[in-house]
Write a structure and sequence with these properties.
mainly beta, single chain, three-stranded antiparallel sheet, 13 strands
Length: 219
Amino acid sequence: MLGAGTWVLAGAWALTGCAGAFVPAGEGEPGRPPAATRAPEAGQPSGGPVAAETPGPSAVPYGATPSSATPPSATPAPAGDCPASGGRVEMGPVETALFARAVVLTLVNCGTAPYPVDGYPSVRVLDEDGDRLPVPVNPGRSMFGDDLGPEAVKLEPGGTLKAVLAWVSTAEGGELIESDALELAAAPDAGARTFPLVGHDLRLMDELNMTAWRRTVPG
């Protein structure tokens, strides 16, 4: 079972390719404007549940070499960075095991009223121009945890929910797609944030699996 911060498997297979941190677009990158000056893109639904194969030892490796380096934590969002919906999504460090990759997503109620949640994160894969790439994003399990399905929750101000976003390779996947960023939101049209895939082998992907928002990370 995965912990909300660091998973047991992460220490055994942490990768040099995961040494960079996920940060919202434009924040902390030399020569790039702040995220507040860039036009936001609304999240879009990723579709209904789709069965996907669970990665294992035969999964396609993503090009990184083993290392004892510890993946850094994601850069905290700046104060006051709260969507009008009241639900802000944050991304944790990269977790690795047997060529598989995953991150824990955290939904924070940064507003002042209870925030209703009953579903999955909204995830879009983007290219360098901010256009959407044809990477399937499936509600479903991975080797990092089972998908227990949506649960209706009224998240109180300051409260958090968790979900797992896992990289999946399948024998039928064909050539991997190179991406530049992930656009994440609590739900479609809930105020998206863009996280560049800076210096990561995560830029190469086949498809993604995600679990529903829950109080704790599924095991």
